[in-house]
Amino acid sequence: FSARIKTLKNDPEAELELLEAFAIVKDPHIQKRLTLLLPEMLTFHAQLAMKKGEYEKAERIAEQALDYYETKTQNKGADFTKARRTLAHIQLKKGKNTREELEECLEHMKELVFDPHPAIALSLFQVGEAYANEGNFLQARQFLKQSLEMRKRLLPENCPSIRETEDLLSKLPEQSMADDSVPEHSVPEQSV
Predict the structure, then answer these.
(1) In whole angstroms, what is the distance from residue 62 CA to residue 68 CA?
(2) Quick check: bond before 188 cis, omega within 30?
(3) Is the pTM of this model over 0.85?
């Protein structure tokens, strides 16, 4: 929890806090009582690594979290979905098209948590980012606007997540070929 707070404050010691927590959670006696804490921490660690641009490391850690959920728990709830979403987002950052996986995670999250919720806002942002990567700026803009609206309702005014969404929205072209309703090459009608 302390590591998450430090991350929100952009404190560079967030990862150190997390590593200290890992040392505690890896104790077999603690693992028996807190089965779901380790994969949740792994997911958070993957998010930290991704934030630093360490995509290979982030992907390995996210895969460990997902594997833990799939093999050692029966949890297919919000934490499992966050792990899936984190892995898909990392892979998106590495250039893989994971839009469908991110959309599935968004739909699953909507079934699991109340709306509005920060987890839904994040999923909306990530799906919007995936559409932007595909060049489908109309769809990207729709998802990003929903995310921004939700983030503004739920988060403090100066939250980095709000700025991140506004920044991505501002970088989208106003129109693209996918957005145009007029065909690129129109053929004039011939008279009979």
Answers:
(1) 10
(2) no
(3) no
Q: Which two tokens stand for residue 76?
A: 């297919």
> How many CB atoms are closer than 10 A to CB 119?
20
Four-residue CA torsion sign, 120, 74, 50, 100: negative
- Residue 149's Cβ-count burial label (10 Å; 0-12, 13-18, 19+) is middle
Give the tens place of pLDDT for each residue, 121-169: 999 999 999 999 999 999 999 999 999 999 999 999 988 999 999 999 9
Q: Which amino acid is at 178?
A: A
16-25 long-range contacts, Cβ below 8 Å, gap at least 24?
18/44, 18/45, 18/48
Q: What angle do CA 93, 96, 100 make, to 5 degrees?
A: 105
Q: What one-letter code names the amino acid at 153?
A: R
| Residue 93 to residue 162: CA distance in whole angstroms | 19
Q: 3-class SS at 117?
A: coil
In angstroms, the CA 58 to CA 53 distance is: 9
Q: Of 111, 68, 110, whose CA–CA distance to 87 is shortest? A: 68
* CA-wise closest residue to 55 among 91, 79, 84: 91
Task: Report the C-alpha gap between 92 and 123 in whole angstroms.
Answer: 13
Q: How far apart are CA 63 and CA 143, in angstroms?
A: 26
